[in-house]
Amino acid sequence: MHSTKDIVAIPGDGIGPEVMRATQAVLKAAGAPLKWHVHHAGVTALSEGESGVLPQSTIDAIQEYKVALKGPCTTPVGKGFSSVNVQLRKALDLYAAVRPVRSLPGVKTRFENIDLVIIRENTEGLYSGVENVVTPGTVMSMKVATEAACKRISEWAFDYARKRDRKKVTVFHKANIMKLTDGLFIRESAKVAENYEDINYEEVIIDAGCMKMVQDPTQFDMLLLENLYGDVVSDLCAGLVGGLGVVPGANISLKEAVFEAVHGSAPDIAGKDLANPLALIMSAVMMLNYLADTEGLEIMREAAEKIKAAYNAALEAGEKTRDLGGELGTEAFTDALCRRIKAL
Ligand code: NAI
After folding, report:
1. What is the whole-number distance in angstroms between the Cα of residue 266 and the centre of ligand 1?
2. In a shared domain, residues 253 and 231
3. Nearest to residue 30, comparing CAs of 303, 280, 339?
4. Domain identity same for 263 and 187
5. In this structure, which residue's CA is closest to atom 24 in ligand 1?
6. Which of 91, 222, 286, 343 lies 20 to 30 Å from 215 when distance is taken between CA atoms?
């Protein structure tokens, strides 16, 4: 008998609850011994009677159970409350975002054999949204970089590279213009790189980097990016492998880990059975492997392998959601995955 692992589930907003339901069903079918503790964040927290978009009880639960699976949270554009995601990442110091971007069987895109890992600094830079009005008609946004944060994300990236046998880390930057902030980022990265002679290190100015990425993404192995660049380039890379429906992620601190897809709450398709749950399902696979690595729970790795085998086979057989050119809705695709897992 295996002991169950407590996991915080945060359904989030928009398509969040739909893809969370799907992911939990798939995890159950794979026999992952998980006990869910549901907590809310985002607009959903307000509709669930909480007094704010990021309740303290949600943060407390993640601190207690250490691992969370999170759906996306809506952030109003150009007005309203500041991003729940930014608040959560800061509150828990989830400084490293990891986003694997891989070609999938049965998902035809411009390029084949893409296998990239994006490491994004999650706590600093313009993405913090620290802005103020200087005088009426003049506003300002602060880009903060600290030596400590630049160093720790670089160390995290190179450690990851070594553990996963990756060959090259590329930093995309704009230090020709932002000489101080991006200058600090590349200086710290280059210093860390000196301690990893087995891993190649390169610096590419981000505008040219984006061009190179769409010309031939297979020339890159791991990307190391400051916060805002990481946000933008993640979606660009998602577009190279089939879209936001297939790119998972994890936000990791020294103590906790929050797994979530790269995509947002997709209000345009919410509640229509159109969402692809794969990105959250893949994030859950990352979570299972994290539990296996950090807590020696091999049963989690076995469940992860089953889920991967099932979605690879499903995609290859043309069982896909509409964003990937298929015909299945969220629920039918989830059922197909569960059937395949149980048949393994
Ligand atoms: P989005 O990722 O929600 O959607 C962009 C496009 O991709 C839409 O056309 C959407 O329908 C499609 N899409 C996204 N996920 C999909 C999936 N699983 N299956 C099929 N199609 C999918 O980005 P958008 O529209 O820029 O943002 C919407 C909201 O989400 C905003 O409030 C934004 O702040 C928030 N957001 C939250 C994130 C998080 O909680 N981690 C991350 C990104 C955005």
Report:
1. 4
2. no
3. 303
4. no
5. 264
6. 286
Q: Is the pTM of the predicted complex or chain greater than 0.90?
A: yes
| Domain assignment of residue 15, given as a range | 1-109+242-344
Do both 227 and 256 map to the same domain?
Answer: no
10-residue stretch averages of pLDDT, the chain, 344 residues long: 88 98 98 98 96 96 98 93 94 98 97 97 95 97 97 98 98 98 98 98 98 98 98 98 98 98 98 98 98 96 98 98 98 98 96
Helix axes 16-29, 330-343, angle to 10 degrees: 10
- Residue of 40, 265, 331 best suited for mutating to test ligand 1, as the one with most atoms within 8 Å of CB: 265
Q: Among 241, 263, 291, where does a domain finish?
A: 241
**Domain co-membership, 152 together with 300:** no
269 Cβ inside 6 Å of ligand 1? yes
